[in-house]
Structures are given as structure tokens and as C-alpha cells.
Amino acid sequence: MTYLANDARYNHMEYRRCGRSGLQLPAVSLGLWHNFGHVDVLENCRAILRLAFDSGITHFDLANNYGPPPGSAEENFGRLLKEDFAPYRDELIISTKAGYLMWPGPYGEWGSKKYLVSSLDQSLQRMGLDYVDIFYHHRPDPDTPLEETMSALDLIVRQGKALYAGISNYPAEEAAKACAILKQLGTPCLIHQPKYSMFERWVEGGLLDVLEQEGVGCIPFSPLAQGMLTDRYLKGIPADSRASKSHGFLKESAITEERIEQIRALHNLATQRGEGLAQMALAWLLKDPRITSVLIGASRPEQLQNSLECLKSPKFTAEELRVIEGILV
Ligand SMILES: NC(=O)c1ccc[n+]([C@@H]2O[C@H](COP(=O)([O-])OP(=O)(O)OC[C@H]3O[C@@H](n4cnc5c(N)ncnc54)[C@H](OP(=O)(O)O)[C@@H]3O)[C@@H](O)[C@H]2O)c1
């Protein structure tokens, strides 16, 4: 059936300015790393994307290698864009990335200009787009001069193949250097995409300060720790969960007894606050004004709906924050 977007889609989402740029992003964005490949059911992908856009999510995050197989999430997204979202292209912020292994030989991964330019051309073709809104370098490359990688991002923006440039997984010091080079080139870094959740807090050791100083936005990925910061694993490992899937990146070995203890304690606190653990985990990140958006995943529409409730989370009291710190040590 032809899709018509919900007229009320902008009524309930919060939009936050991305660093010191002109771009605003929804407080909750959707990533297509898992659940959108050729191994997944296309109609479920469609239902998740429709619900997202109808709920005010304007930002969808991809990468060249998302699937499996690699590239298939971009292909599926391209198909759904064409079938459902083509009239809404100017309401969408679509990002993709290059950095991890995508094709064989010396030009299929890391950070050379050759790889980044070729990879984005392939991504645009798979998605049926003339440009993406944000193009990221996906991970730092220890062997390519940072100047070359950043000048590739600058070139891509000047060519009009991306509107903004971003970096992902860069430690604080390298992020500062990358931002300085991009600024000098005249293509300021828009955004950094690090892994950040209650269970993964490395960004608090300097990166967030660098981003604030540089006026760069921050969009934490895996904010639910791939599902661990939800009720998913409270009663064992469900057969349809990421931890059970052979292609899932969450390994069963990560769900230790100590983890489950923490999850239970956090879940109890969330219940006292009148919400679920997923909402509390997302609200905990969003309480920091340096966080532009939380980049979540969902394997079905109900999960997305549930996570979006974080926009109604009560403010944290000092006591609640203290309890959380006590659980996370
Ligand atoms: N830049 C990078 O290097 C990088 C790396 C990783 C991810 N990312 C980006 O970040 C995005 C999000 O990553 P992620 O999928 O790991 O995020 P996440 O939000 O931490 O985990 C999503 C998973 O949690 C479970 N879930 C989500 N909402 C739930 C709810 N309300 N109740 C119960 N379970 C729920 C689902 O797992 P089940 O499948 O078990 O149902 C879902 O697939 C990716 O799609 C990608 O765009 C970027």
C-alpha cells in the first residue's frame, strides 16, 4: 500500500542542534547495522522505517558494510526509500561510512582517498541517491596520514556527494587533530559517532570535552549496549535475540552473571522511576547537552516504539544518579 507519512510526525520528537552547525538532529536516530540485511524480512524493515519517520525520526544511519551480506542494508534501504520515502528526501538525514573491510585488495578498507571515494560511489549506487547528508570515516587508520583521510572527506563534500563530514571511533587526541585539519580545509567536522552507553563510558575520559570545545556533535552508537540495557536478557537468552544469531555482533559470552546482576539492579531502578530499562538507559545519555542524538537499533517496530518513550522520561534526581554510579562501578 502506498505510504503516506503521518501529518503529526513532528509533534512529539525533540530536535537538537548538532554541535555549532546549522543542522538539527532528532534526539533519537535509527541505525541499520543489524536487522536490515538480506538475511532479514523486508516487510519488517519497512514497518520499522515507516514507524520511525512517522514518529519524527529524520535521521537514518548506514555504512558500506551493513548487512549481512555487506552492502545489503544499503540496498534494502535504497529500495524502501524509492518505494516509500522518495517524496520525503528533503526531510531525511541519511548517513553512511567507510573504514572497515568492504572488498578485497589494498583499496577495500581503512582510510586512503582511493578507498573512501570509491566506497561512497558504491554506497550512493546501492541506495539510489545523488548524495548522502553525512559521510563518515568509520575508524581511524594507523597507517594513512590523517591529512589524506580528511582531505578525502573534504573532497567528497566539495563534490556534493555528501553535505557534511563526520568521524567515528576516533579517540580524543586523534579526533582533535582530525577536527583541526578539517577546519583548515574549510569543511568543519559535523559529528563524531562513538560507542557510548551505561556499559561503555570511554568517551567521558576526554572525547566529550574535545567535541564540545570544537563545536562538534556527538551521536552515541549502541546506546542500549546491543540490547543488554533492555529487558531482553533478564530471563536468559531468547532464541530470536542478537546474542543468539550467528551473524549477531553481541556474543553470548558478554552476558555474564555480573552483567545480569547490573541489568537487574538498573531494571529495578527504572521500575521505581515508572519506566523500562531501555528508556532509562537512553534518557541517561540524553541528559548531557553535548549528546546530539542517541543512535539506536531495533529488530521490530514494538522495540522502536518502546525506546521512543525515553523522550517522556522523568528528570534524574541526584540520588538516582548516585545509585546508577554505584551499580556501574
Ligand atoms: N560507528 C560504528 O562503528 C558503529 C558500530 C555499531 C553500531 N553503529 C550504529 O549504531 C546503530 C545502533 O547500534 P545497535 O543496534 O547496537 O544499538 P542498540 O540500540 O544498543 O541495540 C539494538 C538492539 O537492542 C535490542 N532492542 C532495542 N530496543 C529494544 C527495546 N526497546 N526493548 C528490548 N530490546 C530492544 C534489539 O535487539 P534484538 O535484535 O535482540 O531484538 C536491537 O536490535 C547501528 O545500527 C549503527 O547505525 C555504529
Which key phrases capture this entry?
329 residues; alpha/beta; TIM Barrel; 8-stranded parallel beta sheet; 10 strands; 37% helix; binds NADP nicotinamide-adenine-dinucleotide phosphate
Give a description of the structure.
The structure is a single chain. With 329 residues, the chain is of the alpha/beta class. The chain has one domain (15-232, 278-316): Alpha-Beta Barrel (TIM Barrel), CATH 3.20.20.100. The chain is built from ten helices and ten strands. The protein has helices at residues 42-54, 72-85, 113-127, 146-158, 172-185, 207-214, 257-272, 277-286, 301-308, 318-328, and strands at residues 15-17, 24-26, 28-31, 59-61, 93-98, 132-137, 162-168, 189-193, 217-218, 294-296. The strands form two sheets. Strands 9-8-7-6-5-4-3-10 form an eight-stranded parallel beta sheet. Helix 1 crosses helix 2, helix 3 runs parallel beside helix 4 and helix 5 runs parallel beside helix 6 (207-214). It starts with 14 loop residues before the first strand and ends with a helix. 43% of the residues are buried. Bound molecules: NADP nicotinamide-adenine-dinucleotide phosphate. NADP nicotinamide-adenine-dinucleotide phosphate binds at residues 31-35, 61, 138, 168-169, 193, 221-227, 230-232, 241-242, 278, 295-299, 303, 306-307.
